Amino acid sequence: MQESKGLNISVRSFITALIVIFILMVIAYGLTFVVPSGEYARTVNEAGQTVVDTAAGFKYVDGGMPFWKWILSPLLVLTGEGNATLIAVIIFLLVIGGAFNCLDKSGIMNHLLNRVTEKFGDSRYKLLTVVMLFFMAMGALVGSFEEIVPLVPIVVALAIRLGWDSLTGMAMSLLAVGCGFASGVMNPFTVGVAQSLAGLPMFSGIWLRLISFVLIFLLLHFFVSRYAKKIERPVDAGAGASSTHVVSTAQAGAAQHGDDVARGDLSQSGTAASHSQGSLDGALKTFIIIMAAGIVFVLASTFIKALQDFTMIAVALMFLVAGIAAPAIAGLRGGALGKTFLKGVTSIFPAVLMILMAASIKYTLQEAKILDTILHGAVGIADSLPKWAIILFIYLIVLGMNFFIASGSAKAFMLIPLIVPLAQVFGISPQLCIVAFAFGDGFSNVFYPTNAALLISLGLADISYTKWARWSLKFQIANICLTSLILLFGLAVGY
User: What is the pLDDT of residues 319-330, one digit of tens each?
Assistant: First the structure.
């Protein structure tokens, strides 16, 4: 069997992402010299949430940021607002890297792909539809996004095995979950938080979001299946294909070390060829059972609010257990298992630098106190717009703020107290504002280079950011047109 290459961040993708992010960091620092510092007053509401105080309003203050602080911002961001979430994401990805490497080196991933290819190779477009629908539903119903990152390289490898390419696999997984997240049918992190801040019943007004889900899925399916048919090749049903040949063998910042990690110590970690069919079947069964338990937990979080803060922890724990138990059944045990896990952790380290640099952009704007000024200026523009344009402008405001603040709930606390009263002045309902907020928060997560989950997924799939941006731009434009029409329809029918 061809040697498996493991889960590594491609040097090419890594360097491209670093250049793009660094340019954005420079632009953000440049804004601190031209945009005056200011801030909205904030207060704590009845639920104990810190929100913008619209009564106290906005005022200009002293701000700015020294050069040394900007240079160190990728490290200082760990001490800033939201640092607990940032640290959790980093730990989550490191655990995923270690667990995935064990699953891959033991031959379980390759065995899984062989089984799926054998079963669905003759109906691959039906499988494409089902996979995209599953990921969209995970985003729409439970608000999954970062949690599906460990599944991206599996789907990408599956897409290649089925005769497509890495872009198709990314679209089937990350792009699909981003579309579901944005449709916001029952997304607790965007629609749920935003509706509670606007004083609306949780998940009320669901009919328009359900229509949005269906229309967005049809657009996504058309876009992806049309591309897949253009580039399709015969299904690769051979068991000798590497389960993760979609990723580079090199690691960013340490090419030789990356080659060592990618090659692995086959004498210690073993390959799928050294395992019996029975042990691989048992290991795969164990892996699927643990995965199913994790998915049930994530689905339960939709109905049990207390679980929502632990979904990422649950997914990380799920992969940790799966990454130890299933490979052990397949024959990878003891020191070899520990060494393989550690190699997987080190292979994901370049991702940590990308995450910290991307997070430093928001940190810079907040520390210089110009983020509120930018928002204040945008809200002020709305006063001069006609009613039909207000809802589209709210959509645009959220799209713009999502570049700097990836967290949907964090944006809700910042924007909802501002945009809902603004819309009501023009006779626009809070419910329609929530839909515009969900649209603006979600779709750009799979396009903006400041989103950590996108950067990591692209690195694992060995797709450069510029290639992904060019490829997905047509879909993003078509989707903005579609969702804008949905908002105008909602306004016309008095939603």
Answer: 889 889 999 998
Orientation angle between helical segments 387-404 and 408-425, nearest 10 degrees = 160
Distance CA 37, CA 68 (A): 19
Q: What size, in residues, is the chain?
A: 495
Q: How wide is the angle at C-alpha 10 spanned by C-alphas 8 and 13, nearest 5°?
A: 140
Dump pLDDT digits (tens) for 73-104: 999 999 887 778 788 888 888 888 888 889 88
Residues 391 and 163: their CA atoms lie apart, in Å, by: 42
- DSSP state letter for 174: I
Instruction: Tell me the C-alpha to C-alpha distance, in Å, between residue 266 and each of 14, 104, 254, 452.
Output: 26, 12, 21, 32
Torsion of CA 355, 356, 361, 362, to 10 degrees: 90
Phi, then psi, of 265 in degrees rounded to 5: -100, 90
DSSP calls for 175-235: IHHHHHHHH-SS-IIIIIHHHHHTTPPTT-SHHHHHHHHHHHHHHHHHHHHHHHHHH----
- C-alpha to C-alpha distance for 311 and 321, rounded to whole angstroms: 15
CB 156 within 8 A of CB 246: yes
Tokens 């990723």: give the residue: 247
**Max avg pLDDT among 200-209, 214-223, 301-310, 382-391:** 214-223
7: left (phi over 0), alpha (psi -120 to 50) or beta: beta
For the chain, the distance separating the N- and C-terminal CA atoms, rounded to the nearest angstrom, is 58
Structure tokens given for 418:
């501002």
CA–CA gap between residue 228 and residue 155 (Å, rounded): 14
* Nearest Cα residue to 381 out of 363, 393, 368, 391: 393
The H or E element spanning position 468 is: helix 465-492
What is 66-92 written as a DSSP string?
-HHHHHTHHHHGGGSTTHHHHHHHHHH
Pairing assessment for the beta strands 58-60 and 38-40 based on DSSP bridges: antiparallel
**Closest among 452, 151, 490, 455 to 294, alpha carbons compared:** 151
Name the nearest CA neighbour of 349 among 94, 21, 176, 45: 94
CA–CA distance, 43 with 406 (Å, rounded to integer) = 22
Answer whether 149's CB lies under 8 Å from 93's CB.
yes
Please tell me the pTM assigned to this model: 0.79
Q: How far is it, in rounded angstroms, from Cα 464 to Cα 475?
A: 18
